[in-house]
Design brief:
The chain has 22 helices and 18 strands. It has helices at residues 13-25, 40-49, 70-85, 105-113, 139-142, 153-166, 189-196, 201-208, 218-226, 254-260, 273-278, 295-310, 341-344, 348-356, 387-392, 394-404, 423-428, 441-447, 452-473, 487-492, 494-506, 525-534; strands spanning 2-9, 30-34, 56-58, 89-96, 100-101, 118-120, 186-188, 229-231, 236-238, 264-266, 335-339, 359-363, 378-379, 383-384, 410-414, 432-438, 481-486, 564-565.
Length: 567
């Protein structure tokens, strides 16, 4: 007993001839179905090139349009001819002209000889697997599809919508449950004869002629009626992208194909000379009884699909700019944003850099310029500190800065006096850690030496800006890790807050905080805030600061209000 091959060919006839000769050299009879859309001259030239092979036959031709019945009709005609002309064939292997055998034919024959009654065909119900792409799964079996999806897209869509509107549903022939799977199968003679000679074949053919993409469901469904033993998998390696289109294998996939242990791969680029020269292997580099496995290829292609859809975090380009709110993290690396800390601790930037080893910037979005770490005027990647250049697209300015220095943890200061374009980005970025001391703007106003009456309008403006930022941070759309505390909370318990910051940035490399950076002189601040209230401006974001407020006065062991996790 031997293996017979049915090949569907429509292009790259020189490569198809090369593969046919390989099958025949291995003792496999081959029946070819050439797409009816191929012109007669090309067909005749191809047929003449194989005249010297006694075990090659050509079947009746049908026009094969994507998603149409022609592929099934062509397969039926070729399979019938193969079974009639070659009675010693026990298994029929369906392949295409773009398929490439990876292992010697004798290994495939031995593999099938050990499983004489097994049909290899991917076959699953639409309810069991989410394979379908394009929104039609169960409906492909209950609606009619007389129009080509590729050639007559408008008619296809309108006719589907009309059927859905009127509630039309086709009746599925009694006794079958529609299944789907790869069209590349290997079935036994008994199963194929039972399908082709089924008394209800005319009924089944009539039904499947108007199913969408019947080559992925005709044999997959009817094999369930007649097969003695089904292994729901294909012996042909075929991968599909997120749009349902087949992946094409090129020369640089050679090692990957070698490691798969699969018998046949599809779809091969016709100019992949290295693949056609290397496969099938002249001597088996894998054990003859090795099971085909696609685990490695599956992982690589899954990673490729993820990269194709989502790109790399923090890397943006014209050809791969994600849709808004569809990103998997806006920035390339985690970063920290501090609002209000440098108001309370004037040396906070230097202290934080020394304690954590992070790259700590000043106010990147200050109105005068971008304050890079170490007072640099140009940062990596040619980023200028010029405020006008930065504000042309502040969001991309920050994303580029983080990408260019992605080996470091970045921190920067932010306050209500800065430009606010990036507020929503910060809130929605899963890479951001945001620490906010509300009302800290009051410290700089107090230390300016101006009276409450003089700064009243500025204080009101800063509080409005900060309150809008807090509203954004507390929205259901924010995804950052956020800690919010009032100025009063920080003044009461600075050590615990600073320790939490060190632990968050440095992790296990962090050490216990033994002293805090020097705090600004806040003597007289409560009276200043009271003066603001007397002027009609209520600084509610500062918290309740009184003349008795002193750093570290919170009793040990009592709950601290210094860090309220909002997310």
């Amino acid at each position: 007993m031997t293996v017979g091959v049915v090949m569907l060919v429509h292009t790259a006839f020189d490569r198809a001839e090369q593969v046919v000769r390989h099958w025949v050299a291995g003792g496999c009879p081959v029946v070819l179905h050439v797409d009816g859309n191929v012109d007669d001259a090309t067909y005749q030239a191809f047929a003449q090139s194989l005249d010297d092979l006694d075990q090659v036959r050509f079947s009746q031709r049908f026009r094969c349009n994507w998603g149409g019945w022609g592929l099934v009709a062509g397969t039926q005609a070729a399979t019938t001819l193969l079974l009639d002309r070659f009675p010693d064939v026990r298994h029929v292997f369906l392949a295409s002209g773009a398929c490439l055998p990876l292992r010697p034919v004798n290994e495939l024959r031995d593999y099938l000889d050990a499983r004489p009654d097994t049909d290899f065909i991917e076959s699953a119900t639409t309810a069991d697997v989410p394979w379908t792409v394009g929104g039609l799964d169960r409906e492909r079996f209950t609606l009619r599809f007389p129009f080509s999806w590729k050639k007559h897209r408008w008619l296809f869509d309108r006719y589907v919508q009309l059927q859905q509107l009127v509630g039309f549903k086709r009746k599925i022939p009694e006794g079958i449950l529609p299944h789907m799977g790869s069209q590349w199968w290997c079935l036994t003679r008994k199963t194929l004869q039972a399908i082709l000679n089924d008394p209800r074949r005319k009924t089944f053919d009539t039904y499947f002629k108007l199913v969408w993409i019947p080559d992925e469901s005709y044999y997959q469904t009817l094999a369930r009626l007649h097969a003695r033993k089904i292994e729901s998998r294909s012996l042909t390696l075929a991968k599909f992208d997120y749009q349902g289109k087949p992946h094409i294998f090129y020369d640089d996939h050679r090692e990957l194909l070698q490691r798969s242990g699969c018998f046949v791969a599809r779809k091969i680029w016709p100019y992949a000379d290295a693949l056609y020269d290397s496969f099938p292997t002249k001597t088996a580099s894998t054990p003859p009884d090795m099971e085909p496995t696609t685990a490695t290829i599956d992982r690589i292609f899954a990673s490729a699909v993820d990269r194709r859809l989502n790109g790399r975090r923090g890397l943006y380009m014209q050809s791969r700019f994600p849709n808004p709110d569809k990103e998997k993290g806006l920035a390339a690396t985690p970063y920290s944003v501090f609002q209000g800390f440098d108001e309370v601790f004037p040396n906070f930037v230097n202290w934080l850099a020394k304690r954590t080893g992070a790259e700590v910037h000043g106010h990147l979005f200050a109105t005068d310029r971008a304050h890079f770490s170490n007072s640099a005027q140009i940062y990596r990647g040619g980023l200028s500190d010029n405020a006008r250049l930065r504000d042309y697209n502040g969001r991309m300015f920050l994303i580029n800065l983080l990408w260019n220095g992605r080996e470091n943890h970045h921190c920067f200061q932010f306050c209500p006096a800065d430009t606010q374009e990036v507020r929503w980005m910060l809130a929605k970025d899963t890479q951001a850690r945001i620490w906010v001391v509300t009302g800290a703007w009051a410290v700089s106003l107090f230390l300016s030496g101006r009276s409450a009456a003089d700064v009243r309008a500025e204080a009101a403006r800063l509080q409005r800006v900060e309150n809008k930022f807090l509203t954004i941070l507390r929205s259901t759309h924010s995804r950052a890790r956020i800690q919010i505390m009032t100025l009063a909370d920080l003044v009461e318990a600075p050590m615990d807050v600073l320790q939490a910051i060190i632990d968050d940035i440095a992790g296990h490399r962090g050490s216990a905080v033994t002293e805090v950076p020097k705090m600004a002189n806040l003597d007289g601040l409560p009276a200043f805030l009271q003066d603001l209230k007397n002027q009609g401006m209520h600084p509610f974001l500062t918290g309740e600061l009184t003349v008795h407020s002193r750093p570290g006065r919170a009793d040990a062991g009592q709950p601290k209000p210094y860090a309220v996790g909002q997310k």
